[in-house]
Amino acid sequence: xxxxxxxxxxxxxxxxxxxxxxxxxxxxxxxxxxxxxxxxxxxxxxxxxxxxxxxxxxxxxxxxxxxxxxxxxxxxxxxxxxxxxxxxxxxxxxxxxxxxxxxxxxxxxxxxxxxxxxxxxxxxxxxxxxxxxxxxxxxxxxxxxxxxxxxxxxxxxxxxxxxxxxxxxxxxxxxxxxxxxxxxxxxxxxxxxxxxxxxxxxxxxxxxxxxxxxxxxxxxxxxxxxxxxxxxxxxxxxxxxxxxxxxxxxxxxxxxxxxxxxxxxxxxxxxxxxxxxxxxxxxxxxxxxxxxxxxxxxxxxxxxxxxxxxxxxxxxxxxxxxxxxxxxxxxxxxxxxxxxxxxxxxxxxxxxxxxxxxxxxxxxxxxxxxxxxxxxxxxxxxxxxxxxxxxxxxxxxxxxxxxxxxxxxxxxxxxxxxxxxxxxxxxxxxxxxxxxxxxxxxxxxxxxxxxxxxxxxxxxxxxxxxxxxxxxxxxxxxxxxxxxxxxxxxxxxxxxxxxxxxxxxxxxxxxxxxxxxxxxxxxxxxxxxxxxxxxxxxxxxxxxxxxxxxxxxxxxxxxxxxxxxxxxxxxxxxxxxxxxxxxxxxxxxxxxxxxxxxxxxxxxxxxxxxxxxxxxxxxxxxxxxxxxxxxxxxxxxxxxxxxxxxxxxxxxxxxxxxxxxxxxxxxxxxxxxx
Length: 674
What we know:
Blueprint: H1 4-23, E1 34-39, H2 51-69, E2 71-76, E3 83-89, H3 95-109, E4 117-122, E5 125-130, E6 145-148, H4 158-181, E7 185-192, E8 195-203, H5 209-224, E9 231-235, E10 239-244, E11 255-256, H6 263-298, H7 306-311, H8 320-326, E12 335-339, E13 342-348, E14 354-360, H9 368-379, E15 389-393, E16 400-404, E17 409-410, H10 411-416, H11 426-445, E18 450-452, E19 461-463, E20 469-471, E21 478-480, E22 487-488, H12 500-505, E23 507-508, H13 511-526, H14 540-549, H15 567-580, H16 591-599, H17 631-635, H18 656-666
Parallel strand pairs: 7-11
Antiparallel strand pairs: 1-4, 2-3, 3-5, 4-5, 6-9, 7-8, 8-10, 9-10, 12-13, 13-14, 14-16, 15-16, 17-19, 18-21, 19-20, 22-23
Helix pairs in contact: 1-6, 2-3, 4-5, 11-13, 11-16, 13-15
C-alpha cells in the first residue's frame, strides 16, 4: 500500500477545505457596490448647522448596535433639529462583512452632509438619516426606485424570453413568500439546466409582516419592468429586492426552489439536505481526525498537516473551555470594549495571569493556513509599544485571540472621556507620541513582513499604569512583503484618520499609517479631537496650520498646560504632525524618520508645503465645485515623473520610479466622489 498515504493526503486536504467551508457558512463578501445614493435637496429645507455634529453621534450609535443585530434604529430628540437614523445589513452577511458594509455606507453617506437627510443602498446593506421620523413612513412613497441591468442575450428568441421571464417571476414570488416566514429575509434560486435565476429580498426589521409583503410585492412589480434584463434591483422605503442571472448572495442564505415544488416536497428536500449535511460533517470530521492521528504517528512533514500542526503549537494554542472559564463565560461585566474586529473581555488564567480575550467577528473560512500564519506573525512581535498576542483558539464555536491585559484605558478615554480622562503633563504627552511612533515604525520595518495597521487612532492605543502606549486592535491590519510598494484594497478605517490616496482610491502603503499618526500626534498635543464633520476652519488640523503660517504654531496647545511645556519641543511635534498629514504621500516622512526627528532635536524638520489633507474636504455639498473630485483635479501633483525632493538633508529624494509606482496604484481604482 505505498500509495495509500498520498491518496489519503489529497482526500483529507480537500475534505478539510470543505469542512472549514461548512463550519463557516458566510463568505467574505460584504457586497459594498453602490446601488443608489440619495441626498435630500437643500433648497427644500432650511439647513441648521447643528445637524452635522448630531450626524456623527447617530452614526456611532448605529455602529455599536448593528454589530450585535445587523439592524439598528436611533433617534435623537434633544434640541432642534431632531435626527433619526437607521442601518440594516442583509441577514446573510457575516458580522464582519456587515461591519465592512456599514463602514463603506457611512463613508458614502457623508457626502450628503450638511443636507437634512440622505440614504445609501449598497448591495449588502442600507443606511439612512433624516431630520424627521421616517420609521412610520409609507412604503409606497415617491422614494421607491428600481435599477435594471444590461439586456440578456435572449432578446431575439421569444420562447427563451418567456421562459426567462417566467423564472424571474417565480424567483420573485418565492423569495417574497420566504421573506414573510423568515423574519423579513429570503434568498432563492430557480434553476433548470444551465439557466438559473437568483433572487434576494430583505425587509427592514421594524416593518410588520403584512407591510413587508406589500413592500416586496411592490418591489416585484417594479422589477418585472426590467425584463428581459439580466438583473434588476428595487429599492423601496422599507425593503430591497434583487434578481440576477449571476449568483450574488452567500451560500448560507440559499433556499433551493426548483420548478415550484409542493410544500410537502419542499419538506422532504430540506430534510434530505439537512440529514446529508449532518452525515457529511461527521464523515469528514472522522476522516480528518483519523488522518491527524496517522500524521502524528508517521511524524511526517507534508504540507497537508501544517494546518493541524499549527493547532498543536503549545505556545499559541489555548483551549476554548479555559478561555471561557477565565472570562466568566464572557460575562458582560468583564467586557473591556468593542474593537474593530470583535469584543474584548478581561480574563484570568489558572496561573493568575491577566489576559484580554477577543471574540472575532470575522470567520476563518479562507485558507486556515493563512490564518495561522497571521497568528504566528503577530505573536512574534516583541515591542514595548505593541500589545502582545499570546495565542489563539479555534477549537470551540468561535475564534478567539488572546492578548496581554493592559490595565489602564485607551488613549481616547484618557484624553476626551469626561468620566475617565486625566490631565497629562507635556512630558507624558511627548513620551506617548514618541512611543506610538516607535510602535508603528516597528510594525513597518521591524519584522520580515511589513505590517500596516490601517486604523491608527486614539481609541486603538492602550495605555498602561505607567502611561506607556501600546498599539492594539489589528482587525484591519494588512501585511505584505518588503519588496511590495503598495496594495490596492477596499477602504476600511475611521474617517478623519484616512490618508487621501487610501480614502479615495484604496491605494494602501505604510504612508497611510503615517497620516493617521500625524492626526493622533496633533490631537494628543492639543487635547482637541479631530472631527471630520466640522468645517475646515474649525478643525484642529486647520487651526495648527493657520497658526503655523502666522509663526505661532503652539497657540492651539492644550491651554491647561499654561506655560508648563517646552515650546520648541511642542513646536516640533506640531510641525511634524503637519508634515505627516500632507496630501502628497511622498511628502510624508517614514515612521523611522519620525522617530529620529522626535529623538534628535538637532534635526531640521522639513517645511510642510501644503495645508494638511482633511477628510472633511470631501464632504462639501454636491452643488459645489469640491463635491466632485476627479483624477485630474486631485491627483495632478501626484503624477510628477521628475521625482519629489523633501527639503531636508535627512530625507532622500524620491526617484521617478517611485512616483511611477504611485501612478500604477492610482490607476487601480476609479477616483470619483460624486
